Amino acid sequence: MKTKSNLLTNAIAAIAGILIFSACSYEGSNTTGWEYNDPRNGGFEKVPYYEQETGPGLILIEGGTFTMGATEEQVMEDWNNIPRRVTVSSFYLDEVEVTNHAWLEYLYWLKRVYGDDYPEIYNKALPDTLVWRSKLAYNEPYVDYYLRHPAYNDYPVVGVNWLQANDYCAWRSDRVNEAILIREGLFEHFPQQINEDHFSTDAYLAGQYESGKRVDGLPDLDPDNEFRNVRMEDGILLPRYRLPTEAEWEYAAYGLIGNTYQELITDKKVYPWNGHFVRDGNNNSRFYGEYVANFKRGRGDNMGTAGSLNDNADITANVYAYQPNDYGLYNMAGNVSEWVMDVYRPLSPEDMDDFRPFRGNVFETKVLNSEGNIDDKLTIVTYDVEGVATYIAQFAKLTEGKLNPEEQQLIDNLISYSDQANERYEDGKFEEANTLIRDGIQEIQSSDLRIAPELLSGYGDYVQDTPGELRMRKVRPEENIDRDNYRIADNINFRDGDLESSKDYMLAGSGASENSMYDYGTTTLISNRSRVYKGASWNDRAYYLSPGTRRFLDERKSTSTIGFRCAMDRVGSPVGLNQSK
């Protein structure tokens, strides 16, 4: 892993120096006068810190202001991207889309750690390769080979839904931080990780992961302790990988950093490149006149004619194909559309803040035990209990009259487990509810019936939390009695979908339905699970190459045209070393 400075080595050296030369003077607090890093004063530390390390695969996107929204004629007449000036903070973004090979690495880890005891966790992460199928086209080669054949290693992964993309980001965060601790000599390589005994950043910070340690930890300046774990205050571990917000993605795609002089934006962009055309307009470029992105030129034309392929790609292309934009990001137009964090609303540009705009906040906190400490990490899988019940009911309905007696008995048993689990869940007995779901899964696993693999795969879609992770819950209103900035956890509907923003606002507080505006499946296809995806894909026309365009899809669905890339928060200064005024 590349690093500008070995932060942990410097920290250890500083602490060691403090312990050896205890008689020396230390930097003192300008508020209390007490010296930092002095065991005689209790050992409160101030660690040496330079700046945030750039994580693997990331590029620093210097933030700023820009006009978010439409830059093209409203061909689709959706009017869902009204131009509005906003500010985006600096952040990090993947140089390229997440590839098939990166996803195979993820699958390999899941199978090695969870595969024997919790195969549903591995099944949940499998991309839907059947998204390539069409009733009137021959796409079976992509079904069979696109994900796993080495010819497509460096092509963007597709068939991944929004939930799977978020799971990947969380997994990547832990693996990167684990690698940092190994690099700094605190941990050994520990391939024997299994089930709950695997590295999780949150569990480690909470003191609930010890396996794989090479040493006891850093020297602790607290006179009552000899060693301690790395803390967030040390500035060594990286923030979480995540999906970018819609505003971040759009801002990064334009790359206006290459079109500014002082604070003057000299050229407004329609696409991630200069000019109003989809061909290279640079007279001095060896690619002059060629297409600069992978998209569909017109009906029946995905790549041009033999001997002169216009974009040299019939479906997706290598993630490093085509020229990067001014931030150094590849394929921010074309190749695949990309998931972002936001929940879709057509009028979000009118409602959201103009600083770091985002819709989709559901505020959570760690579960505490009766002593007020962070509760023990999970040792079981937790499931979407209501989702499992719906799935089994739908499976039973679609297979009615088609099952043999043994298969029908299995379905009846699963329905019974699910009904009991729902009862326990409604009574607040969450562990009992999840145990009942698990009992149903074990009955499937012990069966050799024809429908067993199908059922097991379906259960995987409803895995919520995995062993080894800390328990999280939504914040409750009673925790925020004196708070003005928010009260409830789920703010997806705020100002657009909640009862107060609907025609039935007079009924607010009377127990009326909170779904009066977005009645999914009856009056609209928009719901709180509708997620925004940005940019054009290999199968889209040039209109969608403009970063201002926006579309949406249910977070549980996937297609052959949507992929994603990860982002990370930038902490501290918005610019890198030696770039500040």
Structural summary, described in words:
With 581 residues, this protein is an alpha+beta fold. Among the domains are: 100-241, no CATH class; 382-465; 493-524, no CATH class. The protein has twelve helices and 20 strands. It has helices at residues 7-20, 100-114, 119-125, 140-145, 162-183, 201-205, 246-254, 348-351, 385-398, 405-426, 430-445, 452-460, and strands at residues 58-61, 64-68, 84-88, 91-94, 218-219, 227-228, 241-242, 260-261, 264-265, 304-305, 308-309, 337-343, 364-366, 382-383, 463-465, 472-474, 530-534, 550-554, 562-563, 567-569. The strands form eight sheets. The protein has a four-stranded antiparallel β-sheet. Helix 10 runs antiparallel to helix 11 (430-445). It is globular, with a radius of gyration of 26 Å. The relative contact order is 0.16. Mean pLDDT is 90; it is low at 1-5 and 18-23.
Oligomer: single chain
Amino-to-carboxy terminus distance: 29 Å
Q: Number of helix segments?
A: 12
DSSP strand tally: 20
Strand content is: 5-15%
Mean pLDDT figure: 90
**Poorly predicted regions:** 1-5, 18-23
Cα Rg: 26 Å
